[in-house]
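Closing statement on the thymidine-5'-diphosphate sub-project.
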Amino acid sequence: MTAETGNGAHQPADTTVRTEGADLLEPEDYSSTPGVLISFEGLDGSGKSTQLELLAEELRAAGVVVVTTREPGGTQVGEAVRTILLSPVHTEMVARTEALLYAAARAQLVEEVIRPALARGAVVLTDRFLDSSIAYQGFGRELGLDDVITLSVWATECLFPELTLYYHVSEEERLARSSEIVDRVEAESSKFFARVEAGYAHMAELHSHRFRVINATGTVGEVYEHTRAAVNEEFGWLTSAVDGGGRVVTGSSAASSAEDRLDEHGTI
Ligand code: TYD
């Protein structure tokens, strides 16, 4: 898998917390899991949540069984943890507490929602997953890659996404898109977000087998063409896709694989 989709100019930035962590990066054997986990990543204002919704809608229309979720949250426990994490009141929260809480919400989500859905053969689209922890806590909070991965691997019993779509936009574009109401994380400095971006860039290189960097500058429709092309290239679920040059192409196994998924695994 290539590490770039569309015109995404992805420049790995320098960082002081860069480590290898390669020994902790063995993904699961996906052949033993009927479903597929796809994560949507990016900084606040990258437009990833809209892209997730558009993809969910189109996959469902194509007959694919889709489960959507988000982090932190997606379960009652997770949503309660989310309230603590994002409340602007808790300015005293230290980085290790933050990392543990994100991992706690993820553990609950994986056990309660994601693994059962994957076992039923669903396509699970998650708005953020472990790469958010690596980027925000590992790099943004400078806790380091290895410890944060170890924590997430423990929390999820080693579940990695099969495909990660990372939406990359320039800082100006991102700020222009961001809402005026900021949560505790969004209130961070631009230096913090530069480190977060460096974290994503590092993971995109280290895990190039599952990362696709998507140029998220442009209209929702233009970005969705990149989303669609990346997903179709990997899985061929959709009957037609728009390639990088904007032409409509046909995905050979799309219809049959969508039907297989529905027939074999039923509904959620
Ligand atoms: P949310 O409102 O869901 O933002 P977004 O729409 O950008 O996803 O808030 C989630 C915030 O939590 C976001 O700023 C990123 C942060 N976060 C982490 O710092 N670590 C994590 O592991 C996760 C999942 C999220």
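Residues 59 and 210 are 20 Å apart (CA to CA). With this model delivered, the sub-project is considered complete and its resources will be redirected to Aim 3.
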